[in-house]
Amino acid sequence: MYFRAALRPVRAGVHRLYEQAFGTHLFSYLPTALANASLAPTDLERLQVLKLRSLLEVAWERSPFYRERMSQAGIRVEEIRATTDIARLPPVTKSELRVALADGSLLTQPKDGLPKGQTGRSTGQPLVFYHYPPGRAFARACELRAFMQWGWRLGDSIVTVWGAHMNVPSTLSMIRRFRNSILGQLIPHQRTCVHCSPMVYLYTSPASSPSF
Fold it and tell me: Within a domain: residue 47?
């Protein structure tokens, strides 16, 4: 236990260096994510509506697919005044997204240079998508914020049990394996449920981590 505690600042430093060199620079967004968590409900609602409208404006201006869907649903961005207005947005299917991605009407910017991702194939055929780096960085900062609210601190171990085949150790790149081992993130091979649905996440502190 003492050895693990002594490693915490080392892991924390390596984590920051890794994110700076290979990651998404999420630590630049962490202070904002932490500050947002302490907003009053009315201020949080105002911020969420502002972000939602900004997102919809980009979709309307740059994505023919979403512009057509919102137009068919009679949605005007300026009419979005509350988070409950999300219920007015038209649903889309994975099949529709695949077709729109293939014909070039989906994305709001060229996909060249954007990190590529995909869903975990729980329904058989993965859905391909592309990350917007700043948005991905902020999402990961919010993930760290959630860990911190659960008592996790930078440098602590994280045990992850979930169902995406792409994260089973045998499929990871050498850089990802190095990152996981250095940061103390364990993705067990034999105990990873490749076909689990829904996904199951388990985050524990080093003191309570099971022996995998």
Answer: yes
pLDDT level of residue 161 (50, 70, 90 thresholds): low
The closest of 78, 76, 101 to 89, measured between CA atoms, is 76
Q: Domain residues for 89?
A: 24-133
With H, G, I as helix, E, B as strand and everything else as coil, classify residue 212. coil
Whole-number pLDDT of residue 17: 83
Residue 1, domain member (yes or no) = no
- The domain tally of the chain equals 1
pLDDT on residue 3: 59
Query: pTM of the full predicted structure?
Result: 0.71
Contact 94, 127 (CB under 8 A): yes
Residue 46, in any domain of the structure: yes
